[in-house]
Amino acid sequence: MRWTLYCIVLGLCLCSGLAGLNAGIIFNPKNTVEFLPVWGSLGDWVAGLGTLFAVGVALDQSKRQQDRERANLKITVEHGTDLFSVRLLSNGLTPVTVLAVHMEFDDYESSINLATQSSGNIKLPQKLVLGDTLDLVDFRNTEFSHFGQKLAEPIIGRLSDSGVRPSDGNFGVNEAFFRR
Q1: In whole angstroms, how far apart are CA 74 and each of 49, 70, 88, 103, 179?
Q2: How many angstroms separate the Cα of 2 from the Cα of each of 5, 16, 49, 136?
Q3: Which of 100, 92, 158 is nearest to 126 (CA)?
Q4: For the chain, what is the domain count?
Q5: Which of 18, 56, 112, 179 has the fewest CB atoms inside 10 Å of its own CB, making it the most exposed?
Q6: Which residues partner with 135 through β-bridges?
Q7: Which one of 22, 38, 69 terminates a domain?
């Protein structure tokens, strides 16, 4: 919308300038010889602006074509109290090859290979073309708790190595505090 408004304003300014130039030539006939070359070079300016516009259109079309041919992969993650699933969908014209799928943690330098955690054990690498989907992980109920244990093992091991030990955490209520 803004571009249209800018183009209209620019066109009106250009028309006003040309009308002023034309009026100056008509109402001052003895100076017509001086201004006639200026009027004659208008075609050169229009041709130059047309060329610049054509270059802009060509660049825009090549960018759109490049974006269309780019590999495009959509990742959908669903999670709940007893559910965790990861699905890949190929949206681009260019085929996508899935080489590996890992879940990594920034705080704890560890990762889990999601492809081997699923009950189906997905074979990778796998090629996806336009519209293909790949269900990488689909944990429900007991599989989800097993995945949670696998996920927590490296973290618990690192905590144990640093001296933190598990306990029941049932310390009770400090009743002396409430008797005051």
Answers
A1: 41, 13, 6, 16, 60
A2: 5, 21, 20, 45
A3: 100
A4: 2
A5: 179
A6: 87
A7: 69
The domain of 61 spans: 2-69
Q: What distance in Å separates the CA atoms of residue 79 and residue 103, rounded to the nearest whole number? A: 14
User: How confident is residue 108, by pLDDT bands cut at 50, 70 and 90?
Assistant: low
- The first and second tokens of residue 145, run together, are 């708790």
Residue 171 resides in a domain: no
Residues 108 and 153 in one domain: yes
The pLDDT tens digits for 125-147 are 888 888 888 887 777 766 666 77
- The phi, psi pair for 137, rounded to 5°, reads -135, 135
How far is it, in rounded angstroms, from Cα 116 to Cα 175? 51
pLDDT at 62: 93
CA distance 74 to 97: 13
Per-position DSSP letters for the chain, written without gaps between them: -HHHHHHHHHHHHHHHHHHHHHHHHHH-GGGHHHHHHHHHTHHHHHHHHHHHHHHHHHHHHHHHHHHHHS--EEEEEEE-SSEEEEEEEE-SSS-EEE---EEEETTTTEEEEHHHHSTT---SSEEE-TT-EEEEEEEETHHHHHHHHHHHHHHHHHHHHTT-----------HHHHT-
Task: Tell me how crowded residue 101 is: count the other CB atoms within 10 A of its CB.
Answer: 20
